[in-house]
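Intended use. Records like the one below are meant for learning the mapping from a protein sequence to its folded structure. Do not use them to infer anything beyond what is encoded.
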Amino acid sequence: MSRRRRIYEGKAKVLYEGPEPGTLIQHFKDDAAALDASSAEVVDGKGVLNNRISEFIFARLNEIGVPTHFIKRLNMREQLIREVEVIPVRTAVRNVAAGTFASRLGIEEGTALPRSIIEFYYKSDELGDPLVSEEHITAFGWANPQEIDEMTALALRINDFLSGLFLGIGIKLVDFKVEFGRIYENDMIRLVLADDLSPDSCRLWDISTDEKLDRESFGNDMTGLIEAYQDVARRLGILFENDRPDSGGPVLVKS
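Structure written out for the chain above:
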């Protein structure tokens, strides 16, 4: 088997050259970096769960007509995706005040917002993804006004879908961040959802107890993280009760 060419490696994923032109293989790692970037740990099974949860969500977004880069899941840790030109802006949708948003505006964490709020962050690990305005985005050429409008509309549509999906399994969608990319088709440019959607990128709380079920809520302590991710997967119906995803072998999931 020939060695695959690595295209990009981030904190939680690796992108490899795909089998066909215009495709990539997205590999989910078990790495979990501390939020203050002081350290990183390997959490066995995290990549398997994120791969499966993200596949479940992206497949359903495709079904309702939200354009994404997702093609299919290849194995327990990898997906086949379309290669896109990533827009270097993360789009956040906030439904409930939490984390830095709550502290920045002096709002009590857990306060429901009067409406869903969109924020943009410059995609830069070195700078800690600083908050930016539409003026920054257009001034530096990261996206044009039409693309900003499209990202906003798609993010709100994704929010509507995810809010209903998680509400149905007893989970509150507090907020999430997504990335978008451009696909060039002949003379047309199309925006699609890229990256992933999983407990790494969504803030998820149990509706009844406010128990935290996402990466952000664990801060620098990974204790209990894998159990929280397993809980989300079980509620979604993609992980059987006795399954234990780890780095040593496959896990039984519904196809």
